[in-house]
Specification:
alpha/beta, globular, 36% helix, 10 helices, 18% strand, 340 residues, TIM Barrel
Length: 340
């Protein structure tokens, strides 16, 4: 059994073929797709966060809105770039969204990826300390967030407050118990997977990873997941962790599916560079008739090792079509693989 959700980047454009032509379209359609996914029996609605781009950027209003419109489905991110975040303000926003959804928030965070502008986090008022990198900046923000989400008081109360205070040091409010255990780290390497395990975060691994061995993506991810679990066991955490992987999976069951994705049937992993120093491997798309997909996906070692599968959706094709894609996976593929 696996939890199966979708992951949307929330693109919008004025392209003649786009059904998501504005930021308003992207946000409203994201809510509608989450509602439809819950009705289908899917388990999660996740959203990527990018700044300075025509994509989702401020996740908490969206997550709160989905939380108010749904009752069961997990709502989350994959991922929020921590270089841009004030961890205390983020804890307040996340706590509010989690309480609105009654504890369904799954908060994926990370260092992020190369953005639309150079050092975009500087425009948000953040920069690494002397001798540190932007990755260090993201991890330091993350460590503060993790500590704040424990819910312990740390701020000295004013001796003459406007409103009465509880005794002792104060924490940021609202606090949502249990949210600390529902943080995920979006890891692009084995080393950061081990770091996430050490700090007690769940693991998200996407369709992009540092190429550390030259092997296919799914093999490298399986080894990454094993490294994560090994590091988790060494820390003797009190709970079992969760692991998700992302995949582009398109069952071809209609002529429209074939028109959109028939050319992807021979897709393979590709190699590229996400910056001047990092060689990365990009995962293939899976697009074929359901019986072929079942055979292909049964050989994906990372999916087998994960408990959660996030299906990347082409959100600009609209809510109806993406609902159809999710339904096709849940109906024609998941049962044959024992995921349902």
């Amino acid at each position: 059994m696996k939890k199966i959700g979708f992951l949307s980047f929330g693109h919008w454009s004025a392209s003649p073929h786009s059904q998501t032509r504005s930021a308003s379209d992207a946000l409203h359609q994201a809510i509608d797709l989450a509602v439809a996914a819950e009705e289908l029996g899917a388990d999660g609605a996740y959203f990527r966060v990018h700044h300075f781009a025509r994509q989702h950027s401020s996740p908490f209003p969206l997550l709160a809105a989905i939380g108010a419109r749904t009752s069961r489905i997990e709502i989350g991110t994959g991922v929020i770039d921590m270089r841009y975040e004030n961890p205390l303000y983020m804890a307040e926003d996340a706590g509010s969204a989690d309480l609105i959804s009654e504890g369904r928030l799954q908060l994926g965070i990370s260092r992020g990826s190369p953005e639309q502008v150079i050092d975009g986090w500087r425009y948000f008022g953040y920069q690494p300390a002397e001798g540190q990198t932007d990755a260090d900046l993201a991890r330091s923000h993350t460590e503060v967030l993790l500590e704040v989400l424990k819910g312990h008081g740390f701020a000295q109360p004013h001796p003459r407050p406007m409103f009465p205070n509880p005794p002792g040091l104060l924490r940021v409010e609202p606090h949502s118990p249990g949210l600390r255990e529902r943080l995920w780290w979006g890891s692009g390497s084995n080393a950061t997977a081990r770091w996430a395990a050490k700090l007690g975060m769940n693991l998200q691994s996407s369709t992009l990873k540092d190429d550390e061995s030259g092997e296919p993506l799914h093999v490298q991810q399986r080894k990454q997941i094993e490294a994560f679990h090994e590091a988790w066991r060494a820390e003797v955490h009190e709970r079992e962790p969760r692991v998700s992987v992302s995949r582009s999976i398109f069952p071809i069951v209609t002529d429209l599916d074939a028109m959109y994705f028939g050319d992807e049937s021979g897709s393979e992993d590709t190699i590229g560079h996400i910056d001047a120093h990092t060689r990365a491997i990009f995962g293939r798309s899976y697009a074929a008739e359901p019986d072929v997909l079942v055979k292909q996906l049964a050989e994906d070692e990372a999916i087998a090792a994960a408990d959660t599968l996030l299906l990347t959706v082409p959100n600009q094709l609209g809510v109806d079509y993406n609902t159809h894609v999710l339904d096709s996976v849940l109906r024609h593929v998941a049962p044959e693989l024992g995921w349902r």
